[in-house]
Structures are given as structure tokens and as C-alpha cells.
Amino acid sequence: MAEQPTEKQMKEFQEKMKDMSPEEINELQKQQCVFCQIIDGKVASKKIYEDKKCLAILDINPANPGHLVLMPKEHYPLMPLIPEDILRHMFMVSKALSQVMLTSLGAEGTDIFIANGSAAGQRAQHFMLHIIPRKTADGVPLDIPVNKISKKDINEMKDLVIEKVNVIFKLNKERSEEHTSELQSH
Fold it and tell me: DSSP letter string over 15-41?
């Protein structure tokens, strides 16, 4: 087992990190990432699918038999950092892999799950998408709780989120309200 770094070593490392560029920090994260090592073939895995942009492997701690982990080949810790073309491609691949789960394993459904950030349950700092084959009463606890929230709080959340959506999607207020109305009617 590897020795834990001393407090002095940790402080030295933190000081060194302050002088590193974002590219150098990313490269350091990539060197430390077990999923990057899997992608590079340095750590064994059960590959299910691979192309130029992504890799799917069997999860070594599956929620259900056949649980897949689909990840980009480049190191991205969180979804917002992934280029749109790679993310789009990964979702097309996840759709096909979901179909494979339904037909090859006799799954009755699939959960396609992303833990984006440690507060959401992300354990590794490499973005991944889980594809979990499901059967009725399989005991996998991925039910989303139904919590009560006041109309006032809902409206406050709506206003906060819409404000950011308008900035990100470069929408003006009138266009945003029109778009929100369209979404609500569907």
C-alpha cells in the first residue's frame, strides 16, 4: 500500500499547483485518473464498445448485471466541460447501448444515469454515463423522491434558473417567456 503524503508534502504540492496552467492541471488529473488509465489500456477492463470518442466498459461494482459505464476518451471531470460534439456522440451511443441491454439481457428498461459533481454522487473525477439494465422489482434504489415545495419557492427557483438560461442561451426576456410557454404546453 502506498504511503500517505505528509502535511509538508501536501502543502508543497498545493503551492506547486498555484503556479500550474489549466492545461498542466488537466494533464496531472489525467495522469492520476484510473479511467484515463483504463482508456490507455494500462488498467484492465471488460470493454463492450469503443470508438474514437468514447469507451464503454462493464462496471466492476454493478448496480445490476450488465451495468455499463460510458466515458469520453479525453479527460473531462464534469459534463459542462465536454465539447458538444463529444457529448452528442455519447448520447447517441448510450441510446444504442440501451437498446442492446433491452434485447441481449432481456432487460425491461434501462436507467441512464449521470452523477455530475461530488454533491450529486460522482465518485471519480472523470465524466461518465451509467447505463443500467433494469427489471421489475430488481431492488436497485434509483427512485427519485417526491418532495413538497411551496409555490413561492418554485417561482423563486424558476426566476433564478431562467435568468441563467437567458444568459447561456443568449435569450432576451420576451423570447425566454415565449420559449417557456412552448415547453409548458408540450
Answer: HHHHTS-HHHHHHHHHHH-HHHHHHTT
pTM for the full predicted model: 0.76
Nearest one of 120, 15, 17 to 77, comparing CA atoms = 120
Ordered DSSP codes for 105-128? S--SEEEEE---SGGGT--SSS--
Nearest to 71 by CA among 95, 85, 50: 50
Q: How far is 125 from 77, CA to CA, in rounded Å?
A: 5
Amino acid letter for position 27? E
Phi-psi label, residue 146: left if phi above 0, alpha if psi -120 to 50, beta otherwise: beta
Tell me the C-alpha distance between 41 and 52, whole Å.
Answer: 14
- What are the Cα distances from residue 120, in Å, to 113, 124, 179? 11, 12, 28
Are the CB atoms for 97 and 51 separated by under 8 Å?
no
The enclosing H or E element of 182 equals helix 173-185
Q: pLDDT by residue (tens digit) across 79-97?
A: 999 999 999 999 999 999 9
Residue whose cell numbers read 485518473: 33
Tens of pLDDT, residue by residue over 16-54, are 777 878 777 777 778 889 999 999 999 999 999 999 999
